[in-house]
Amino acid sequence: MTAAAWLTALLLAVPVPARERSCILARRETIAASAEAAAAAHGVPVALLLSVAYLESHLGCSRGSGGCWGAPISRTRRGVAGGADRAASALALGYRRCGGTPEGAVSSFRWGRCRVPVGAHGYGPADVLRLAARVAARVAP
User: Fold this and answer.
1) Residue (of 96, 94, 97, 95) closest to 110 by Cα position
2) Which of 46, 82, 121, 139 is at a distance of 20 to 30 A from 106, taking alpha carbons?
3) pLDDT digits (tens, 9 = 90+) for 31-78
4) 84 contacts 49 by C-beta, under 8 angstroms
């Protein structure tokens, strides 16, 4: 599925808050192009990248996200998040480090570990995969 199709399906499948919905609609072409390029450059599924980015920052549309998708721009600047390329790079690292599974990739993205740590808060791999499946089901014939 293309990033543009995923975004359309997301807006149909999930009750996106009004402020974030309008931002996603206004930036849809930029978000889709960035996601496609980053997913291809780093060899990660575009649906996984977009699902993580949606849960992380509503695709950069959450208040205070500054358009970022959650992954830090570098190890030394952990408090500065980057966009699609940084998120895709972090997921690709997780795939390599954690056995090539989407669960491991998301755990690595979120917590720097291949498994969800005990007591972890916020979204995790199951939430990402559930969102991806829900969106995919919206466009399935």
Assistant:
1) 94
2) 139
3) 999 999 999 999 999 999 999 999 988 998 988 777 777 765 556 655
4) yes
For 105, half-sphere exposure in the C-beta direction (CA atoms, 13 angstrom radius) is 22
3-state helix, strand, coil in the chain (%, to 5): 60, 0, 35
**Residues 110, 126 contacting (CB under 8 angstroms):** no
Cα–Cα distances (Å) from 126 to 51, 107, 131, in that order, read 11, 10, 9
Task: Judge whether 66 and 19 are in contact, CB under 8 Å.
Answer: no
Cα angle value 129/94/50 (rounded, 5°): 40
Q: 0.85 cut: is pTM over it? A: yes
